[in-house]
Amino acid sequence: TILTTNAHHTLYTINTINNRSIYLAGPMYGNRELFFEVAKDLRSKGKYAVIPFDIQPIHRNKDAMCPEGPLAGEGSNEHTAPCYMRGDIEWIAFKAAALVFLPGWENSSGARVEFTVAQACGIPIYFALRNDGECIYTNSMGESLSDYREPLREK
Q: Who's near 20: CB < 8 A, 6+ residues apart?
């Protein structure tokens, strides 16, 4: 089920992608187009790609203010980076089948947290690389994301 679509990406309803989504992680500032490009490539390969821009921020309760911190930057409104990080961590822990890290992720404090969460939760980690203009996705053992098959889960 498609919730919204625009020139850059398609946002699917949560019911469609629960536990089957590929979460993209990396430095957010100045990389909006790269996130959209990689998500589009993964979707063209039949993967459900979710980018941080798709995920809603989380407050402790609906009346609470965002925790103190910098505003989230590109495309954000009144929410702080910690509000968005809460939503991203929840998504990773409960809905992601795998994570794909974009180039430069090591320089992003948020992406490093996401890496740690994925490791702690046993979620497969892949890295996006360019090879002759083509995006390829590989893990630390050289296995391709295209070969990844999600384990069957009990309902």
A: 48, 97, 150
Q: Which two tokens stand for residue 44?
A: 């063209």
Rounded-to-integer distance, Cα 133 and Cα 80, Å: 35
| Residue 99 parent element (H or E) | strand 96-101
pLDDT (tens, 9 = 90+) of the chain, 155 residues, equals: 333 334 443 333 333 344 468 999 999 888 889 999 999 988 888 888 999 888 888 766 666 666 655 555 555 556 777 888 888 999 999 989 999 999 999 999 999 999 999 999 999 999 988 777 777 787 777 777 766 555 444 44
Q: What is the pTM of this model?
A: 0.73
